[in-house]
TrEMBL record:
Pfam families: FixH (PF05751). It comes from uncultured Cytophagales bacterium. This is Nitrogen fixation protein FixH. Keywords: Membrane, Transmembrane, Transmembrane helix. InterPro entries: FixH. It comes from the Bacteria. The chain crosses the membrane at residues 6-26.
Length: 145
């Protein structure tokens, strides 16, 4: 085989590889965006920064930890106990498994969250609440065994 045929063969293999990769990408049907309103949320990102700043100004940090026995414990400063909000368990691997639960803190600022309905693995947890005219947002990672 002379050098001209080798160039044509190499180019043909490259084109076949690119065509195969494009075909695989186009046929994927399990692609899920992080959020259905992704672009709208990006525009409102300055509000998110302000919510995160409000959390950093709290007297104690927000804590979310695995408490054993299939539960997690969320701890906020006691001053935040009357807050209204929700907790979003976001599954990076599959958005269809996301779970949103209401925020119900006890007077000490704690909430026990059962994890029995969550699959094992990494979950990103977004805690959002409102109190006294201020909005708060805390993002944490939790590994469910």
């Amino acid at each position: 085989m002379n050098w001209g045929h080798r160039i044509i063969l190499g180019y043909s293999l490259f084109v076949a590889l690119v065509a195969t990769m494009i075909t695989i990408c186009v046929k994927q049907d399990d692609i899920h965006l992080v959020s259905k309103d992704y672009y709208k949320e990006e525009i409102a990102y300055q509000g998110q920064i302000e919510k995160l700043t409000n959390v950093r100004r709290l007297s104690q940090p927000v804590q979310l930890r695995y408490a054993g026995a299939g539960a997690a414990r969320l701890t906020l400063p006691a001053s935040q106990a009357p807050a209204q909000g929700h907790i979003l368990f976001f599954r990076p691997a599959d958005a269809r498994q996301d779970v949103k639960i209401p925020l119900h803190l006890d007077p000490a600022g704690n909430q026990d969250i059962p994890l029995g309905n969550l699959a094992a693995g990494l979950w990103k947890v977004k805690i959002t609440w409102h109190l006294a005219g201020k909005d708060y947002l805390s993002e944490q990672a939790l590994v469910v065994p």
